[in-house]
Amino acid sequence: MPTLLLGAVLFACDVPAGSTSTGGRETPIRPEARATSLARDPASGLAFVAVRGLPPEGQRTLKLIRAGGPFPYRKDGVTFGNREGVLPQRPRGGYREYTVPTPGEGNRGARRIVCAALNPADRECYYTADHYATFRRIRP
């Protein structure tokens, strides 16, 4: 019965099962991330994504963040202002952003990981595939 209800909701929203809507485009969710992405982070209200649900480039970027670098892009580690107000509020300088390379892009592309500027071993991080329009909390 829950599957039928989910199907009805997705049909009504015109979003195919197994994807998320991002401003008219659909971004497939990796199969291994589906179960995790249904849970929500209580602090932010955002859906979770497992590390293994990130694209391979995102997994590598997360490892670099946790190791403290070195980072391939000059702007990696700069302050993220959270002007969109999607992430939980923090004092100015409370978030840092990092590039997740996009194969085939000649520039930094739209994918980022944004982390709270805390102890690197205990980071609160978020992934966006669409340049801050939507975020998912990376499950620690």
From TrEMBL:
<dbReference type="InterPro" id="IPR016191">
    <property type="entry name" value="Ribonuclease/ribotoxin"/>
</dbReference>
<dbReference type="GO" id="GO:0004521">
    <property type="term" value="F:RNA endonuclease activity"/>
</dbReference>
<protein>
    <submittedName>
        <fullName>Ribonuclease T1</fullName>
    </submittedName>
</protein>
<dbReference type="Pfam" id="PF00545">
    <property type="entry name" value="Ribonuclease"/>
</dbReference>
<keyword id="KW-0540">Nuclease</keyword>
<dbReference type="GO" id="GO:0003723">
    <property type="term" value="F:RNA binding"/>
</dbReference>
<dbReference type="InterPro" id="IPR000026">
    <property type="entry name" value="N1-like"/>
</dbReference>
<dbReference type="GO" id="GO:0016787">
    <property type="term" value="F:hydrolase activity"/>
</dbReference>
<keyword id="KW-0378">Hydrolase</keyword>
